[in-house]
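Re: the 125-residue chain
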Amino acid sequence: MFLGPVTRGMGGVATVGVRQVIAGKASPDGEAVPEQLERILASADFDASPRSRAFVRFIVEEALDGRHEELSQIAIATRVFGRREDFDPTVDPIVRIQAGRLRRSLERYYLMSGAEDPVRIELPR
């Protein structure tokens, strides 16, 4: 189940993805995703910075609340990273850089302690 798109500045779309790994389940149960998010954030194997932690919490919560259409680079930059309202993603790559770091931290977590977790939170390219 993919929660929704995260719009990139000049065109392309990335998605915040949540995948149920248990065979036969089409989508995660209502509490499975928030529980998985907390499991990730509490793990020593999730080596993310405070910025990346705030980023993943924000995008998952926004997507779960049905606001995935509003997850633009500008929204993330202003609401998570404290950038000004006139933020320009073509000048300041903070969201793209942090997205790459977050992907690596999630990959590490799922290779280590999260390998058997029934739900995967992903930020595909």
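Residues 1-15, 20-24 have pLDDT under 50 and may be disordered.
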